[in-house]
Amino acid sequence: MSFPDSDAPVETVWQGKFITAKRQGRWEYVARARGIRAAVIVAVDDDGHLLLVEQYRVPLGRRCLELPAGLIGDGGDDEADETAAARELEEETGYRAERIESLGEFFSSPGMVSESFTLVRAHGLTRVGEGGGVEGEDIIVHRVKLADVPAYVAECRARGMAIDVKLLLALGSSLLG
Prior knowledge:
alpha+beta; 3 helices; four-stranded mixed β-sheet; single chain
């Protein structure tokens, strides 16, 4: 079976420090520059609370509710996915994980963006700081009981907050019932 445009050359239309706009045949899409990848963290504490973060996202023009996440490689070129996830979890939420388990690679919008992320589960959480990210990130940490996540997301949406697609993971059963 032949896939349309799969053998067409890839043309870089524009490249910035973090993203690249590309064209391949009839398709236009965005890719991360320099092989940058991301890690997204599912962190549930021993009391059954999911850790969420809220931060302003320039492309959306508003604050967004998300799972903790960050770029792999901020700690060095050879940084492992799990190491980056542990670092980002602590920076953003103030929680340290005893163990990080990889759940696999996922693609958030494969018709428009080639970016993937590694989803991880954090185990054995200990609060070691306030979180909030690095200077200028202005991250707000939310600790939400798992059973209350659907209502909390609805409340945030009603206040005008954007909701990251990766939160579908926490909403799954409430959307399918």
